Amino acid sequence: MDFTLAEEDRMVQETVRDFAERELGPGAAARDRDGTFDLDVYRKMAELGLLGLPIAEEWGGAGGTYLQYAIAVEEISRVCASTGLSYAAHVSLGLGSLSLLGSDVQKGTYLAPGARGQYLVAFGLTEAGAGSDAGGTRTRAAKVEGGWLLSGSKAFITNAKSAGVSVITAVTDPGKGARGITAFLVPKDTEGFYPSTSYDKMGMRASETAEIELRDAYVPDEAMLGGRGEGFRGFLEVLDGGRISIGALGVGIAQAALEASLAYAQTREQFGQKIGQFEAIQFKLADMAMEVEMARLLVHKAAWLKDQHQPFGQVAAMAKLFASEAAMRAATQAIQIHGGNGYIREYPVERYLRDAKLLEIGEGTSEIQRLVIARGLGLGR
Amino acid sequence: MQVVVLVKQVADTAARIKLADGKQDIDRQSASLIVNPYDEMAIEEALRIKEKHGATVWAVTLGEAKAEEALRTALAMGVDEAARVSAPASDALTVARALAQAVREISADIVIAGRSAADDEQGQVGTLVATLLDWPHVTEVTKLEISGSEGVAEREVEGGVEILDFSLPVVVTTQEGLNTPRYASLPGIMKAKRKEIRQIALGEDVVGQPVLAVRSLELPPPRGQGRILTDLDPAQAAKEIVRILHEEAKLI
Fold first, then answer.
1. pLDDT of residue B67 exceeding 70
2. Structure pTM?
3. Could you write out the DSSP letters of every residue in A164-200?
4. Does residue A381 register a pLDDT over 70?
C-alpha cells in the first residue's frame, strides 16, 4: 500500500493549483456576487488541457487518470467551487457518459471536441418530478421516420445554455419503468431545444444552471446514446463517477475553509492574544484538518478504484457523502471562527457555506447516498 | 537550430526551508522544490523561438535523480528533449564546466539561462558557460529577437534601454519583464512522463576542482513583531512614522 502521489500526479496538482490561484482566484468573489458564468474561464482551462483531463488521447483528452481529475476538481474548487461544479458536470457527467456509452462515431463527433474544450457538455437527467426518483422521468421520445421527437422539460441542468451538446434522457417505452428510459445526444442548435435563463441560486452562483424545454425536438436515430432502454442503467456508472467529483469539490471547499480559518486565527487578536492560542479555536481547526484529510483519502480511494477498474460505487457514495458534509461543517466552523466577519461578504467563508450546501443535494442527496451505502450492506431492496 | 535551456531545481521561495546537517546546504529532502523562476522564463523564451523559427529545445540540468522533476516540468511546458548531467560539481565554475560540455555535446546554437538561481543568487553560471565556450553573451535580457544567424537583445540599464546585436552561437540570461512563462499543459505532463531523459555523466577530468566551498549557511533571524500605531489621525500617524524611520530605524 502506498499513499504517495506519483510525480505526474503532483505535477497536475501543482499546475492546476497555480492556474486556479492566478486565473480563477481574482474574479471568484465578483462572479459569485454577480452570478456571472464566464466562458472565458473555461477557454483558459481548455488551453491547459483541463477540460478533457481523464479522457483518452485518441479522443482529444489528456489521457490522465481519474485520480488526477479528482485532484484537479479539488484544486479548482478550493479557489472557485462554481467553476469546479461546471467543470465536474462537463467532465464526469457529460464526457463521462459519452466515453462510457458512445459509439466511435459519437465519440468522434462529440467527445473529442468536448475533451479538447471546444464546448462544454451538459447532462440532462433531472426533471421537476424526477429528482432522486430518476425513474420518474416524464420527458417523452416519440418514434418518427428516421429519428425521434423529444418533448418535456429538464430541471437544474448544469451548463445547459452554454453546452455544445446535451445528453438528454427520455421515455421511449412507457410502462417499462426505468428500463423504458433512453438517452439522446441533442446538439445546442436543435430546433425545439430551449434552455431557459439561469436560476438565481443561493450558492454556486458562477456556475450555469438552467431548465431545458423540449418541444418536439427532432434528433436522428444515430443520436441515441447507448441502447434503447439503457438510458437509466447506463447512467448509474456515470453517476458513480460523478459522485467522486462532487466529493473532490467538497474536499476543495473544506480545504479552503481550513486555510482561511487558520490564517484568520493566526492574525485576529482578542483578550491580548491571537485567537489561535485559544483551545476553543484550536479544537475547531484540528477537527477541520482531520475531516479534510479523511474526505480526501476517501475521494482518492474511490478514484483509484475506478482507475483500477474495480467496483467503486460504494466508496464513491461514501466519499461524496462524507466530503459534502465535511465541507458543510468546515464552512460553518470557518464562519464561527471568523465571528461577525464571517457573516459578511468581504470575507470568503460565507460563500464556502452557500457553495457547500449544494453538495448535499446535487448528484444524489445525502439521503440517497446513505441508501446506496445501506444497499451495499445488503439492506433494503 | 538547437536551443538549450539551463535549468536549476531550487527550493520553493514561498515555502519555509530547513538547513541540512552540517549547515552547508539546505535540506533538499524536506524542501518543496520548483524550477528556478528565471529559468522558467528561459524555457518560455526558447519555446517562443521554436514557435517562430522552428527549433529543437533542450532542457539541461545538473543534479541528482530528483532534479529530473525540473526536466519533466520543462517537458510538460513543451520542451522537446531533456538531459541530466551528473558530475562531481559543487561551485559555479565546476557546474559551468559540466554544463558547457553538455552544450557542446548537444551542438547548441542558443543557450538561455536564468540570470540567477533563487537559492544561492550567485548569478555566475550563464556568464561562466559563455566564457568557457568563448561565445557572445548578453546578460539580463528583457527582449530577444532572433533572425537567421543574428540576434538583437535588449537590456534595461540605468535610465534607459541598451540594444545589443550579436551573432549565433550565443548565451543569454533572462531578466524580469522578458515574458510570462506558460503553464505546463496537462497533456504535456502525461507525455513528459513517457519521455526518455538523456543522461550525461562527466568526471573530474571535465569539471576540474572547485575553487569555492560553502563554509556554512545561516537562516535569517526571525522577523520581530510589527508595531501598530493606534489612536492617531492620519497626519499624526505619518509624522510618527517619519520620526520612527529617522530616529529609531535611522533609515531616512
1. yes
2. 0.88
3. SEEEEEEESSTTSGGGGEEEEEEETT-TTEEE-PPP-
4. no
Cβ separation B76–A48 shorter than 8 A: no
pLDDT at A235: 85
The residue with greater pLDDT, A133 or A323, is A323
* Among A375, A64, A369, A108, residue whose Cα is nearest residue A244: A369
Give the per-residue pLDDT at B17: 84
Q: Which residues of A are less than 8 Å from B189 in CB distance?
A: 8, 11-12, 15, 62, 64
Q: Judge whether A50 is closer than 8 Å to chain B, CB to CB.
A: yes
Among A89-98, A108-117, B24-33, the range scoring the smallest mean pLDDT is B24-33
Read off the pLDDT of each residue in A26-31 and give the average, rounded to a whole number. Answer: 96
Answer whether B76 sits within 8 Å of A15, measured CB to CB: yes
Which pLDDT belongs to residue B25? 85
A133 touches chain B (CB under 8 A): no
Q: Does A71 touch chain B (CB under 8 A)?
A: no
- Domains, in order of start, for chain B: 2-207 (3.40.50.620), 222-252 (no CATH)
Chain B residues within 8 angstroms (CB to CB) of chain A? 69, 72-73, 76, 183-190, 192-193
Secondary structure class of B63 (helix, strand, coil): coil
CA-closest candidate to residue A28, choices A72, A71, A74, A83: A83
From the list B167, B175, B145, the residue with the least C-alpha distance to B48 is B145
Collect all residues of chain B within an 8 Å Cβ-Cβ radius of residue A60: none
